[in-house]
Specification:
Blueprint: H1 2-18, E1 20-26, E2 35-42, E3 45-53, E4 58-67, E5 72-75, E6 81-87, E7 90-94, E8 103-107, H2 127-137
Antiparallel strand pairs: 1-2, 1-8, 2-3, 3-4, 4-5, 5-6, 6-7, 7-8
Length: about 140
């Protein structure tokens, strides 16, 4: 029984280590202009993309549509399609129809600040790692 529990803990620990998330945001948290994308990688595959916006941090799931060498597209539940392109370690977000003002999103730190808050095990640790996750799993040519 003890061996089985050890095996399960090790197996679950390895699976959890495979889950990663790269967070990019624009604006100030707690303000109406705030926007955030969270790009999940699970089992070495692109997974869920979450979009958080506004003062109340409303959350939507957006769908990964397609990519090429310069950008990838996401589709919102209202059918809005946004294009996302890397600019160094930042992410340029825009649309082709002019309904969404182009913005540049930066890596968003998730974790304790001055010892207050919860550590995010799955989160990319810095802007370089966050962009590496996007390039490896979302911008694959």
């Amino acid at each position: 029984m003890k061996t089985l529990l050890t095996f399960l803990m090790l197996t679950l620990g390895v699976r959890a280590a495979d889950d990663r998330v790269a967070n990019f945001s624009y604006g100030t948290p707690g303000q109406e202009n705030y926007e955030e994308f969270s790009f999940w990688v699970k089992n070495n595959q692109p997974a869920e993309i979450q979009y958080v916006y506004g003062k109340d941090r409303k959350t939507l799931r957006v769908r990964y549509v397609k990519q090429d060498k310069t950008h990838f597209q996401v589709r919102f539940p209202n059918q809005l399609v946004l294009l996302l392109s890397p600019q160094g370690n930042q992410l340029r977000v825009y649309d082709l129809k002019g309904k969404y003002a182009a913005k540049t999103f930066s890596w968003h730190y998730e974790g304790p600040v001055d010892g207050v808050g919860t550590f995010c095990q799955a989160c990319a640790e810095d802007e370089t790692e966050a962009m590496q996750l996007l390039r490896q799993y979302y911008f694959k040519p």
